[in-house]
Design brief:
The protein has 63 residues and is mainly alpha-helical. The chain has one domain (4-58). It has helices at 4-11, 14-58. The longest helix is centred in the middle third of the chain and has 45 residues, at 14-58. It is rod-shaped, with a radius of gyration of 28 Å.
Length: 63
């Protein structure tokens, strides 16, 4: 026979919801970090290209 206090613990699902929200939050954070990492390299290349074009445009012809 299972004691009543064990039945209450087994039937209680309030902690499961908190764990599910925690897992969803962790997944969202990982996706956000991966997205920033992926876009970071492309953004850096874009701005570096612009910087190089500006530097070439303002450099005197003889230099």
């Amino acid at each position: 026979m299972i004691p009543p206090w064990m039945r209450r613990i087994a039937a209680d699902e309030s902690g499961a919801t908190a764990v599910e929200y925690g897992v969803m939050l962790a997944m969202l954070i990982l996706v956000t970090i991966a997205g920033i990492g992926a876009l970071g390299g492309a953004s850096n290349a874009f701005w570096q290209g612009n910087l190089n074009a500006i530097a070439e445009a303002i450099t005197p012809a003889g230099d």
